[in-house]
């Protein structure tokens, strides 16, 4: 998994470890993401849900990017009852962290506009002087 995707998941790591049901999520994971021995290892690794969650995330972090582990994990969360919000939050974090930089706006006092502004000030100047008279 690439670093940006890993960081999006790590940002929500505590919530995932606490609230995810790894076995239910694995039921919705694509078969190419986890081998049968990996699935069995997660299921048998611990009776404690949090430990199973940590193990599943750890395996996904080590999965090659070509297999799209992030996308598969998020899809599995979306398709697992009561996990849709987690999927949305992870995607939101990933999207915000990878949005294109905003284009810098040109200042109104940039050299291209400076002449226009100066011209406007000169044409309005006589109007001001007649008002003061």
From TrEMBL:
Region spans: Disordered: 96-133
Organism: Plectus sambesii
Listed Polar residues bias regions: 123-133
CDD domains linked to this entry: CARD
CARD domain segment(s): 1-83
GO-annotated biological processes: regulation of apoptotic process
Name this polypeptide is given: CARD domain-containing protein
PROSITE patterns, A to Z: CARD
């Amino acid at each position: 998994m690439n670093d940006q995707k890993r960081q999006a998941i790590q940002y929500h790591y505590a919530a995932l470890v606490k609230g995810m049901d790894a076995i239910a999520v694995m039921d919705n994971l694509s078969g190419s993401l986890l081998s049968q021995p990996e699935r069995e290892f997660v299921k048998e690794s611990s009776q404690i849900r949090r430990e199973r969650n940590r193990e599943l995330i750890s395996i996904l972090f080590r999965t090659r990017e070509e297999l799209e582990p992030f996308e598969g994990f998020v899809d599995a969360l979306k398709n697992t009852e009561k996990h849709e919000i987690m999927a949305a939050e992870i995607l939101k974090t990933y999207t915000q962290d990878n949005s294109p930089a905003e284009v810098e706006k040109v200042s109104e006092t940039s050299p291209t506009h400076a002449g226009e502004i100066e011209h406007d000030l000169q044409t309005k100047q006589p109007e001001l002087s007649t008002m003061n008279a």
